[in-house]
Amino acid sequence: MSLSPTRMRRTARTQPRGRPSRAAYVFLLPWFIGIIGITAVPMIASFYLSFTSYRLGGTPSWIGAANYERMITDSSFHAASLVTARYVFISVPLQLVFALAIALVLNRGVRGLPLYRSVYYLPSLLGGSVAVAVLWRQLFATDGLVPELAGRFGIQMGSWISDPQHALSTLMILNVWTFGSPMVIFLAGLRQIPTELLEAAAVDGAGRVRRFFSITVPLLSPVIFFNLVLQLIGSFQAFTGAYIVSSGSGGPANSTLFYTLYLFQAGFQKFEMGYASALAWVLFAVIGFFTALNFVGAKYWVHYES
Amino acid sequence: MRAELETDAVRTTTGPDRSRHPSLLRQALGWAGSSGWKHLLLIGFGLIMIYPLVWMLTRSFISNADIFNPDASPSFTLENYLTGWGSLRVTFGRFMLNSMVVALACIAGNLISCTLAAYAFARLQFRLRGPLFGLMMSTIMLPFHVTIVPQYIIFHQLGLIDTYVPLILPKFLAVEAFFVFLMVQFMRGLPTTLDDAAAIDGCGPFRTFWSVILPLCMPAIGVTAVFTFIWTWNDFFTPLLYLNSPDMYTVPMGLSAFQDSTGLRNYGALFAMSVLSLVPVFFVFLFAQRTLVQGIATTGLK
Description:
The complex is a heterodimer. Chain A has 15 helices and two strands. Chain A has a two-stranded antiparallel sheet. Chain A is an all-alpha fold. By secondary structure, chain B is mainly α. Chain B has helices spanning 2-13, 24-33, 35-59, 64-67, 79-85, 92-123, 129-138, 145-157, 165-172, 177-188, 193-200, 205-216, 218-234, 237-242, 251-263, 267-287, 289-299. Chain B contains 17 helices and no strands. Chain B has one domain: Orthogonal Bundle (MetI-like fold). Classes of the chains: A mainly alpha, B mainly alpha.
């Protein structure tokens, strides 16, 4: 991932004055050790391992692209990719729509904004924890809260957790439930939109809907884009919920086999570390692809004020 | 490309918090006009959001036998907390203590390494500054999966599996570039005349960092500490990789083990321990709300 030219120019402008300082390298020493020892070397090693067959303690043997070819016929890999794609492309848009909708309601000078903001934000802080995943499993269990409530409305529903048709939906709902953090970012973005513009448009006879699509959305588009990229990348890497809800199996019938969970199973339960490395690189490529796609698409709908 | 995205989000979100409060007139109009149904909607929706947590909390105080018996009139009991606490070979108190040790060490690591690196990037002049800053920024979005296999092999070779070193050491090496970026942004906002004045008074870069810049960075330090705490407290993946023996388990590992052993048959106790595990995060949420909201608004942290 390279830096954009705008960024470089901005960096150059804010460069501190004074003569070059050798002390800077002392300050950077811990980071330097980290970027080499924890990031760069393992990254290169992982790329190499992805072309080998390696089990912990043994020696890696070069097998060319066999790990990557294996994915073509690996049905668990197919399941994991499909589950993850469905999870990301359904729950992220839903989550962002909720976040934006609530942010819009909260933005118009609602009394008690800090309180609402806190209440809606709380799930974002807790959503990644094992405790909430444990709770989620029970919410949708046979005698959990959700079937109980559905029963009161005369809807018979069994355990969604043990139903391959619905198990993934519970995790999507969990992801949507954590809409608070993009909401807070939306709120901060909405605050930057000059009210004069909206008032001027209103004077000119633009209705609510028109003002939203012609003023709010274009001016907010960098923030929408920012949230989209961030949530997309995060959701591709989701792990804890799926692990806890399925006790690490990704079941029932691979319906919650998130990509990262499959990678974990391959690398750290079966100790097929070559294959796990290949899986990691495919994930990296996919995330990179969608992020790049976002950036290309952004040219058509993201509006930057200059 | 992350960089541009970041600064744009920051540019649009760093305005002072109170500068755009609507006028009194507008507020009054809004209140009289549409706020009734709006509040009703917001409160209703908030209740739905929070209800699962309340459900877990109340269940944790009802005895397991009463939970699924609709005819029973449940009474308040601490039974679940007592059984849950000692239900594994290692008590839950031990898991809490372990988690606390790891979280505090991680906070120390992130604060030391990230402020050091950020100071160099934000305030010092050196030859490779541009490229190295670019390198640092490019690691923010790197999915950690592309490094975990070799990292695991290295820690395994060094005999550090089942210790806290793999959990803590990376934090002392500024691996969480997000926080470096946060600090850089903050330090860039401080006037450079401070550095000049310190230099005239005879301060070297270390003295300037320690006595002038660092004390002014408290808000950024607060955000880093709070988020490091929450992330490491909730982190499940790293301990799952590196910790084997129950004595070493952190809270998420303990909960997961509890669920897999007996928890599904006794979820009163499972809920009780889940509630306990959320208490520290909840307290941070209560007392550091301003910091949290500012942190997310300026950087997009979760």
